[in-house]
Each structure stands twice: as C-alpha cells, then as structure tokens.
Amino acid sequence: MKFFTALTIGFLCITALIYLLQKSLIFFPVKMGDSTLQAIKKEFPDAEEITIASPDNTALRGWLVKPAVTGKVPLVIYFGGNAEEVSWLISEAHRFKSWGFCLMNYRGYGLSEGSPGEKELYSDALSIYDYCVKRGDIDKQRIVVMGRSLGSGVATYLAQNRAVKGAILICPFDSLVSIGKKHYPFLPVSLLLKHRFDSASRAPSIKTPLLALLAASDEIVPRESSMRLIEQWGGPHSVKIIEGSHNTLQEYAGYWESIREFLAQY
46: how many CB neighbours lie within 10 A of its CB? Predict the structure, then answer.
C-alpha cells in the first residue's frame, strides 16, 4: 500500500510540475545579439527592419524583404517553429522570386519583446497582417501565409481570420493535444494543456488553397497528425512528401520547388 501511495504522489507531483512548466516545454525562445543584427544589416542592406506594435504595445521586430521591382508586390507572411529565430530565412528570400517576404520573430524571440503564448501569438499574427495590408507597397489581394511546425498553428489561425490567397504549412499538426499524447502517453494531456493550437477545429472553415509539405522522416510530428489536419481543410489541398527530418526537409529537393510552383498560381 505504501508503494502505491508513494507512486501516486510521485505521479501527481510530476503532473503538477509539467503543468506549471508547460510553457517552457512548448516555446524555446532564441534571442538575437547585437553582433548578429549588425552582421545582418551588413550582409542584407535591402532587408527592411520593421517593428510592429501588438494590441498590448509589445514591440514585435523582424524584416520585410522585397524583390527589386516597381509597384506593389505580393507577400508571404512567415511564422516559424517553436525554437526558430527567423532571420536565417532572409538569405532564402530570393527563392520567392517576385514575392515579398515578411519575417517577424515571436514575442521573446530575436529582438521581439514580451513572452510567447498561444493567445498572444494569435493576436500578434493579426497585427502583422493588418500592418502589411496597410502598406502602400504590398498587394493586399495577394497575401499567402506560411507556417512551420508550431507556426502552422499560427498560420492556420490567421487564414481563418483574415483574407489570404493561400496557405503553405510545413510539418503541420492537427493540435498540440495529439502531439502531447504521442510524446507523453502517461499524462492526461487533454486536461493539462493550456496552449492547445487546435488547428483541426479551424480547418473546415478555411476555403483557401493549401500546400502541405511533410518530412519523410518526421521524428516530432507524426504523419497521421498532419493528415488529420489536411483532411479537415475546407479548401483544395495538395501534399508533398519531402526527404529529410522535421528540421532538415528544406535542404532536400522538392521543398523550394513546391513552394515556387504554389506561389506561381497567384
């Protein structure tokens, strides 16, 4: 009896600890030092630094990279993974050809202020979109949202709540609840999780076209989790399986080509 009592107490303590620490288990903010910022300015002088104020006046910082063309440009708005500082993608902006590329770091990431959370990231996504469509150099009729891993949840939320031409989701998942159950099968995840990122419940109402890029060897997001989201999507959708893992599929053939082909439709 003492053994089972101790086991129960231990389980409850572990459960309580994970509940209290869940934010640090979901978000892994990567900061940016001044030396890195200066290096970016030197290497990419045409990348415009932008600051967007959230509704609670938290400063979100990132970049807008535009092609060297006159007039308004179509735009891809990108949302990164849970441990991704997005400045690395400035060097990949040329792959988008005639499209602009908006890269904003989440709260607490890069040089952005504040602390990340599901509701905060959703609200910030709307602020980023609203800022972009008000700019005179952006074609607000041709905006595509792009999200990777955790960012697929943010991108899905934005696609449900703002007008976008298309959505590109990389290693997406149906909800963090299902991911949590996969990685923590011994825990009552559905009861504990506060940051749920339930994209599957939003997907049926989204009619915009979807391109989903899945890693052939994804060790983090199970294939079935991605497919549950894709199958719920309310608009036309296509799926590309790319070689590599959750964090490396962008290094393999078909990744950038698929994105370019998708954008070429618009």
Answer: 11
Residue pair 51/130 in contact by the 8 Å Cβ criterion? no
Helix, coil or strand: residue 31: strand
Strand ordering across the sheet containing 73-79: 48-53, 59-65, 100-104, 73-79, 138-148, 166-170, 210-217, 237-245
Place of tokens 């905060």: 120
What contacts 125, CB < 8 A, 6 or more positions away? 79, 154, 155, 157, 158
**Among candidates 59, 63, 54, 26, which has minimal Cα distance to 194?**
26
Return the pLDDT at 207: 98
Give the pLDDT means over successive 10-residue stretches in the chain (266 positions). 48 53 82 94 96 96 94 97 98 94 98 97 98 97 98 98 98 94 72 88 98 97 97 98 98 97 96
**pTM value?**
0.93
At 119, the amino acid letter reads K
Q: What is the domain partition of the chain in residue ranges?
A: 29-263
Going by C-alpha positions, the residue among 211, 213, 215 that lies closest to residue 247 is 215
pLDDT of residue 138: 98
Rounded CA separation 124/26 (Å): 18
Residue 256: its pLDDT value, please?
97
Q: Which residues pair with 75 in a beta bridge?
A: 100, 143
Q: Which architecture characterizes domain 29-263 according to CATH?
A: 3-Layer(aba) Sandwich (3.40)
